[in-house]
TrEMBL record:
The keyword RNA-binding does not apply. It comes from Siccirubricoccus soli. Pfam families: Acyl_transf_3. Keywords: Acyltransferase, Membrane, Transferase, Transmembrane, Transmembrane helix. This is Acyltransferase.
Length: 391
């Protein structure tokens, strides 16, 4: 049996992966304006096939990888602190940003959505007549009617909070066992894909995608499986080493699964394709990132710390820029290439100018206090996706 030798450096590969995936989420939301999926805040008059294809790929891969990274970080966190502090951390860095986002960002997102004649509620979606009153009047209605409240993209935080608490006994166990350094055989690099496919198939996960938590048990269980896989990776680094060895084949599996999804659509075969694509994406992403870890740098540290705030903030500029481009009559490609990079830059600027220097804005987007100057090597900041510690 081959043996995995743990590295002595920080997991800069996971930090870079988290940054890339966050950028992929922003791109996915820009693509969603033109994808065939009808349930979104802003939509074009007609779908665009390339947007549908690439959105499907990003939706399957980025969500699965984000939950895996969060599971990895949870186990790493529990190695360094008691479970009571972990629960407090989840409340401060997951629940608080969710509530703050619903209160501070939700009204703007909902106003944009209603202005497009769309009403995406926690219990469904419908077309509506755009409001004939102003934003100030809308605010009183937003906070006075539960049905108008929206968590939009921050549904991820609600699911993450529930999963983090529900799996606490398992996470504690994974954090306390000695790390398994031996590398398993090739079969374990691919076998979980069958488990993912079976889980998605039997629970009816993935379609339709309306993350309301209370009536979305299939997706909740699916994301729980992704989160748990990340926790197991943290306890068994040898398994990650096997993924690195099989990264090209895992990428091929992901692409094959995506092709099945696109060709078969909703149904039994399509859900099997989702499972194959999700696990292949997880394995290929971790595998290739581990093969080429970047050197620590101030830019990597800054972007790593910015990931959570940018995720929280990015949806408002994506939607606003999408509305502008649609109003100007721009085509799909021009709109995506306009909204994606500019929304990313605006989110980073908002983080740098309005969040990073100040204590309360940091807390509201899930960050800890501003770090003190390091005495040794620089850290990588805080965040629910951050892989604390070394491997």
């Amino acid at each position: 049996m081959a043996t995995y030798r743990p590295a002595a450096t920080r997991r800069t590969d996971l930090d870079l992966l988290r940054i890339i995936v966050c950028g992929g989420v922003i791109l996915a939301h820009a693509l969603l304006i033109f994808a065939a999926e009808p349930r979104y805040h802003v939509k074009s008059a007609a779908p665009w096939l390339p947007a549908t294809i690439f959105y499907e790929a990003f939706r399957i891969s980025t969500l699965a990888i984000f939950f895996v990274l969060a599971g990895w970080s949870a186990v790493a966190s529990l190695r360094r602190r008691p479970w009571q502090r972990y629960l407090r951390d989840r409340a401060e860095r997951v629940l608080l940003p969710l509530v703050a986002g619903v209160v501070l960002l939700g009204p703007v997102i909902k106003w944009i959505e209603l202005g497009q004649g769309r009403d995406l509620r926690i219990n469904g979606f419908r077309l509506v007549t755009p409001p004939d009153y102003g934003f100030v009047e809308f605010l009183s209605r937003y906070f006075g009617r539960v049905q108008l409240l929206t968590w939009s993209h921050l549904w991820f935080l609600a699911y993450l909070f529930v999963i983090s608490l529900a799996l606490l006994p398992v996470l504690l166990r994974l954090a306390r066992v000695p790390r398994r350094e031996w590398m398993p055989g090739r079969v374990l690099a691919f076998l979980p894909a069958a488990g993912f496919a079976l889980l998605i198939l039997t629970t009816g996960a993935y379609w339709p995608f309306l993350p309301n938590l209370t009536q979305d048990w299939g997706n909740l269980l699916y994301f729980t499986a992704c989160f748990l896989a990340g926790g197991v990776f943290a306890a068994w680094p040898g398994w990650e080493a096997r993924l690195r060895a099989e990264a090209p084949w895992l990428l091929a599996m992901a692409l094959a699964g995506l092709a099945i999804v696109l060709l078969a659509g909703e149904g039994v075969v399509g859900r099997i394709g989702v499972g194959l694509c999700a696990w292949g994406s997880i394995g290929a992403a971790l595998g290739y990132a581990g093969r080429h870890p970047p050197s620590p740098s101030p830019l990597l540290a800054w972007l790593g710390e910015a990931t959570m705030p940018v995720y929280v903030l990015h949806h408002v500029p994506v939607l606003a820029l999408g509305v502008l481009a649609l109003g100007w009559g721009w085509g799909p490609m021009a709109t995506v290439l306009f909204a994606w990079p500019l929304a990313t830059l605006l989110s980073l600027a908002a983080y740098r100018l309005l969040v990073q220097p100040f204590a309360w804005p940091r807390r509201l987007v899930g960050m800890g206090p501003a770090p003190q100057p390091p005495k040794t090597a620089p850290g990588l900041g805080g965040g629910i996706f951050r892989p604390d510690g070394v491997a």
